Amino acid sequence: MSNLLASNIQNITLVTASITPSAVGANATVTQAGVKVTGVLPGDLVIVNPLVLTNNLLVGDAIVTAADTVSIQLSNPTATPVGAGAAQNYNFLVIRPSAPSGNVIT
Questions:
Q1: 33 near 72, Cβ under 8 Å?
Q2: CA–CA distance, 62 with 13 (Å, rounded to integer)
Q3: Confidence label for 8 from pLDDT (cuts 50, 70 and 90)
Q4: Gap between the Cα atoms of 82 and 9, Å rounded
């Protein structure tokens, strides 16, 4: 195992953003890039959940790609393609770490 730098959490914020999901083929995963999430910064951790479960889409990983911008993975585990859906709201739990303390976890 590598040495890890310890860090504390500076801030936790809940942000709601509207997303129009991409079409996802049968048994496929796509990356929905360029999702505007106001206030996120590179280095933030994000956890995303839809407010309503629709279209058999599963939400996977999420990553901040630039200020105010997140990419998320959408998966379709069914044998039928899912077309692009209507816009819906998603919650983003944004966790902002503080600068590493310099303490090393081994």
A1: no
A2: 15
A3: confident
A4: 38
Give residues with Cβ within 8 angstroms of 61, minimum separation 6: 72, 73
Report in angstroms the alpha-carbon separations of 1 from 30, 37, 69, 91, 97.
31, 34, 32, 33, 22
For residue range 33-63, list pLDDT tens digits in order.
999 999 999 999 999 999 987 778 899 999 9
- Strands (E) located in the chain: 4-5, 9-19, 28-36, 45-50, 58-66, 69-76, 88-97, 104-105
Short-list 7, 10, 56, CA closest to 29: 56
Give pLDDT, residue 53.
79
| Edge-to-edge strand ranges of the sheet holding 58-66 | 28-36, 69-76, 58-66
Ordered by start, the domain boundaries in the chain are: 4-105
| CA 45/CA 2 separation, integer angstroms | 20
**pLDDT above 70: residue 78:** yes
